[in-house]
Write a structure and sequence with these properties.
410 residues, alpha+beta, Helicase, Ruva Protein, domain 3, 6-stranded antiparallel beta barrel
Length: 410
């Protein structure tokens, strides 16, 4: 009988435990939080974006770091595999825009309940509120020390997450454990994180949500990234899906980075000009601030007019051609100076982690320490939003667990 310990009850740790379980071994998950899957609760704005429904070959362009490393793991445990597992235990799911998969109930808690049901069914033990302090290996046995308890195992999986959202338990402990075993950890940076901007209008724009707009990141007037979709203004700057995606393109240690928002990306300059002229003809006797309601969100109008250097109270029939062209330019290029990215603790995922060069990509086993495995965000792999990062967690966890199962049956 072999003992398997998995540190971390997130998606990677849970799948590692499930895949490792056989009648020939005992599997124990050690979790520092009071419940499993704490970070899963907040994914997809609390709905849990389980995975993405796209073909597996479409996943690789969405992986920002070390996509080739994921080839074997993703093909050996696919998005369909995790969905079939959850569905076999009663979870219904649905596919939404961008092929993002959510529980049919829109409740992340239902996904957690399903994982709990699977663990119980397979007789996988979970020890909650267990904060591991130190790990060593002696005589082919891992000795794992918690605050008051000590554990021993033949196989060890470290699936403790990165350092984003530390309130969910991702505090970088896994990186520390890996370093103690001689592993390298690449630089840790925020990935998929909101942006701080410099603007006199933040108080007026706070809470404003924009859809079907285009955001561009410009460095020295060169566009390095464009994203189309939704964003929201916050008290510090910008957040939302396209902001998080664009954050990965922001270079380090660069000044003069401009965030440009095209409020009407589907209209070229001429079409937008014709549209505005029609509105001007319709509202010719109104103040300009009351003549743009058909075109722009109410809260945006004063900001756009100030940036266009147009008096809000000026009558539409008095607006000059030069002013109208300035207005068009502002609508197509509303600019904000980037101050920087928000702290890593606010990032959706960590960029960086345990070097993939020191991990077997087929099994997730350490190349340095036999029977030591890594899974999930603790590894130097990160992807775009849309369920891709969770699938990476499932697939790497499964690869580790499958390898343990095969070894324990030898």
């Amino acid at each position: 009988m072999k003992n398997v310990v998995v540190i971390g009850a997130g998606p990677a740790g849970i799948l590692a435990a499930i895949a490792a379980k056989t009648i020939n071994n005992n599997v124990l998950i050690l979790e520092k939080n009071e419940k499993i899957g704490k970070k899963l609760y907040i994914t997809g704005k609390g709905r849990c974006n389980i995975t993405n429904y796209s073909p597996i070959e479409d996943f690789f362009p969405m992986i920002n770091s070390n996509s080739k490393f994921m080839y074997s793991a993703l093909y050996n445990y696919t998005n369909m595999d995790i969905l079939n597992l959850l569905e076999s235990y009663g979870l219904k799911y649905k596919v939404e825009r961008g092929n993002r998969v959510f529980p049919y109930s829109d409740k992340s808690s239902d996904v957690i309940k399903t994982f709990n049901k699977i663990l119980l069914d397979l007789n996988i033990k979970v020890k909650l509120n267990e904060d591991i302090r130190y790990i060593e290996k002696q005589d082919d046995v891992f000795r794992i020390y918690g605050k008051t308890n000590k554990y021993e195992s033949d196989f060890l999986v470290i699936a403790t997450g990165g350092i984003s959202y530390p309130a969910t338990g991702s505090t970088g402990a896994g990186h520390k454990f890996a370093k103690n075993f001689g592993h390298s950890v690449t630089k840790l940076n925020p990935s998929l994180v909101p942006m701080e901007i410099k603007s006199n209008y933040l108080k007026e724009l706070q809470g404003v949500s924009l859809k079907n707009i285009e955001l561009a990141v410009k460095v020295d007037d060169n566009i390095i990234c464009k994203e189309f979709g939704e964003l929201v203004f916050t008290h510090f700057g910008l957040s939302g899906p396209i902001v998080l995606k664009a954050s990965n393109s922001v270079p380090e240690n660069k000044n003069n980075i401009i965030i440009s928002i095209d409020l009407k990306p589907k209209l070229d300059l001429e079409t937008l000009d014709n549209r505005i002229q029609r509105d001007f003809a319709k509202y010719s006797n109104k103040n300009i601030e009351n003549a743009l309601d058909d075109l722009l969100i109410k809260k945006l109008i004063p900001v756009v007019l100030k940036e266009s250097k147009i008096n809000c109270f000026k009558k539409v029939n008095q607006i000059t051609r030069e002013e109208r062209l300035r207005l068009i330019n502002t609508i197509k290029n509303l600019k904000f100076e980037l101050v920087g990215l928000r702290p890593i603790k606010e990032a959706i995922i960590t960029k960086g982690g345990i070097s993939v060069r020191e991990i077997n990509p087929k099994t997730m086993e350490s190349k340095k320490i036999e029977n030591l495995y890594f899974a999930g965000e603790v590894i130097d792999i990160d992807a775009m939003t849309g369920g891709y990062n969770l699938q990476i967690a499932y697939s790497t966890g499964y690869a580790a667990g499958k390898s343990i199962k095969e070894k324990s049956n030898e």
